UniProtKB/TrEMBL annotation:
It comes from the Bacteria. Keywords: DNA replication, DNA-binding, Repressor, Transcription, Transcription regulation. This is Repressor LexA. The keyword Cytoplasm does not apply. Residues 89-215 form the Peptidase S24/S26A/S26B/S26C domain. PANTHER family: LEXA REPRESSOR, LEXA REPRESSOR-RELATED. Pfam families: LexA_DNA_bind, Peptidase_S24.
Length: 223
């Protein structure tokens, strides 16, 4: 049987996840309920998990899902309410301006996201955008602003004209729009931005590669 406070936390996790497409952090739960510390938020989540109202993944920020219940309020194991969720790694940052910031190879953590956000279950990772050169992009109706989390299919590297991609230029991670001239074969990486960024013309012999296609954006993904 849930206490009043436990039910309020459960309802908050459910509504937050439905709105943002990922679960709230401990700090966000603490702030929302004006709790004394994140340990209190952790205590509520632990009780909800023990009662099988929540499913949580160890050592994964935001790695929780609300479990469905029957009409008497008892939880049903393994039935995620309304959505299927998958866990993807968060692997550092990529620049949305000049190609200056190296992508981190070490995994920072994991995100639990709705399966509907991405085209497939595997081969997807997230990285944090730095810069403004895609702040007028249109990726499923979303732009990419600094601090957003960008979802990348690293197994799909067959870029086509108009795709948004993660490129590696001289060892640096970079987010751009891919354009290729049909007649000359000239590849250009362009910005869609309010800023004055010049396009990057890729020449034969340049040290660069397409390292995946951008398949989604989580707005305001800062921790």
């Amino acid at each position: 049987m849930l206490t009043k406070n436990q039910k309020e936390v459960l309802d908050y996790v459910r509504s937050y996840t439905a709105k943002h497409e990922f679960a709230p952090s401990l700090e966000e739960i603490r702030k929302h309920f004006k709790l004394a510390s994140v340990s209190t938020a952790h205590h509520y989540l632990k009780k909800l998990e023990e009662g099988k109202y929540l499913s949580r993944e160890a050592n994964q920020p935001r790695g929780m899902s609300v479990l469905a219940g029957d009409f008497m309020g008892s939880p049903i194991m393994g039935n995620i309410i309304g959505f299927e969720y998958i866990s993807i790694p968060l692997v550092g940052s990529a620049n949305c301006g000049p190609a200056e910031i190296l992508a981190e190879e070490n995994i920072e953590g994991y995100l639990s996201i709705q399966r509907s956000m991405v085209p497939k279950k595997s081969g997807i990772f997230a990285l944090r955008a730095v810069g403004k050169s895609l702040n007028r992009a249109n990726i499923k109706g979303k732009t990419i602003d600094e601090g957003d989390l960008v979802l990348v299919d690293f197994e799909d590297r067959d870029a086509r004209n108009g795709d948004y991609i993660l490129s590696i230029i001289d060892g640096a991670a970079n987010l751009k729009k891919y354009k290729k001239d049909k007649k000359t074969g000239q590849v250009t990486l362009v910005s869609e931005t309010t800023e004055l960024w010049k396009p990057i013309f890729m020449l034969p012999g340049d040290d660069w590669a397409v390292n995946g296609k951008i398949v989604g954006v989580i707005k305001g993904g800062k921790k």
